[in-house]
Amino acid sequence: MLLGVPLVLSLGPVSFAADPPGLSEERAIEQANEMWESGAIIPALEILDQGIEDHPDALALQKLRGDILATSRGPQEAVAAYETVLAKKPTALNVRWAKWSVLTRWGQGEESIAELRRIAQIDTQNPLVHLRLAQELRKLDRLEESLESYKKAVELAPNVLSWRLALARARFDVLDYQGSDADVQYVLQRLPPGSPLELPAKNQLAQLYESMERGRRHHTVLTPDVTAPQLKEWALLRADAWRLFEAGQYREAEPIYRSLLALNPKDPTAVHQLGLTLMQLGQCKDALAVFGKIADLDTSEENYTDTVYRMGQCLVDLEQWEEAFVQFQTLYDAAVEFEKTTKDVALPPETRVLDKMKIARWLDKVRPHVPELAKLKEQEVAATIPSGEPPPSTVRSEDDLLAKTDERMKPHNPLDKRASLLGRDADFSWFRFVIAASKVMRDDFPTGAHEFIPLNPGDSFPTSQEEIYLVFGLVSASYDAVPLTARCYVETSGITREQRTVAQDHIMTTMNDQSGYFMLSAPKAGWAPGLYSCGLFAGERTSVDTRVDEVRFRIIEPPRSS
């Protein structure tokens, strides 16, 4: 689909009237585009190949050739075409973004990050590219490099307080506690009244001064007599294991994680990742034994929460129903409690929480196998509600409400395992990637499946842009019809409760969908220059409970002609 018009790409021969040789560059582009948009890829490429032979310095022809190859299941050839352009014009940002998009969709993580870094070196004053680079580097545990990109993003957008809070966490993870404290204090001093950022900022302070977690680079778990070569070996193995895990090479990753744990038995990340690896290999019994060690380690809240969830899944797989019921009921109770305690608190868009509905589906699966346990739980819940009265949450005095609000604004006790389940998502992103683009095309496969492909990708669009497309790839094919929503707002200095949605779209995935897109139409008054943040939601309602990811773009004034 191109600009909302259905289009089927064809790789077979299509008959067209012969064109005279020696087309001008402009005419070759026009002809190739016409054929491409009609689904005739091979004739379009033939026109471009002839045009490139006739006009070897016409970079626009090479760029268009790369775009067509990117939509015809030829990522390697597309990258090569883009590199031909970049060899002659290395600062061509539109070509670099196109190359980055192909590498990202192709699953080439290291190469896509390298390209993103080149974009950041060219577009030095664009805060979004530095923020994206920071987030991608962090996923690969390249925390020190990530921190530098966070610093640059915040330097370019100093008043976007949610970014500075992310910078505080990045400093904490590389053990810069003083810098982390300074950033959190900066945020707290400048927050507008009632800002939902206040709660996570206070929690960040609690993590600094009360939590057992000391940041991802805190490795006191290594034995005191560890040698420098052993420490180097451990760090290299950790990076290798993560790369293999990310690439889905679980059989190769397993022995490396075991080697890591032989060097450092108390590495909580390695324990968690080994457990996930064993799950992917279908070895749930071994995975449970590994996951069981997490409770004795100084792990992060996110790892602990995910471990509880994964143990529940493994117990279901092994048909250990009672233990599975306990795991999922613990998570569900935590999700309900968090929902109650934050009912009157507008959480910031970045807050991730337990997906109560997803956990409920697992409980529904387990409950028929443990009728007695399920009945006891129902009785326990019923006993907390006095007969003839509404639930206590609906009959609070003004003093109770004030006290409850004060309590909500206090940081969670990070030493309380129960509290550590709150405000986290036990399942991670639905999306393998989300790419903003000015066009989208649909590639139909002979099997009936299809893929949506972003064209003219990037993170910056002019005020005259009519539609912006958010093209996504799912981590796994959709198992059912699932409603997805994108809601976008202007990212201002301090998040307030009254965030006005300026653009949104609602779609429904169908069975076996692996990609899709949101179309954001320009507001009636047009796009205003600025930074935009879009929350992505899965489910019928859009709330902090159903938020599964986010993406950002910016609107800029078009360059003035001199």
Please tell me about this protein's structure:
It is built from 21 helices and nine strands. With 562 residues, the chain is α+β, with helices and mostly antiparallel strands. Among the domains are: 324-426, no CATH class; 431-556, Immunoglobulin-like. The strands form two sheets. The protein has a five-stranded mixed beta sheet with strand order 3-9-8-5-6, with no helix packed on it. It has a four-stranded antiparallel beta sheet with strand order 2-1-4-7, covered by helices on one side. It is globular, with a radius of gyration of 26 Å.
Q: Helix count, per DSSP?
A: 21
* Biggest β-sheet: strands ordered side by side in the sheet: 3-9-8-5-6
- What's the architecture of the domain at 431-556, going by CATH? Sandwich
Which whole number gives the mean pLDDT?
80
Helicity level: 40-55%
What is CATH's topology name of the domain at 431-556?
A: Immunoglobulin-like
- Give the topology string: H per helix, E per strand: HHHHHHHHHHHHHHHHHHHHHEEEEEEEEE
- Span of the ends, CA to CA: 36 Å
Radius of gyration, taken over Cα atoms and rounded to an integer in Å: 26 Å
Pairing-aware structural class of the strands and helices?
alpha+beta
The main β sheet shows up as: 5 strands, mixed
Question: Which strand-content bin applies to the residues?
Answer: 5-15%
Multimeric state of these chains? single chain
Shape: globular
Tell me how many strands there are: 9
CATH class of the domain at 431-556: Mainly Beta
Low-confidence runs: 1-20, 389-428
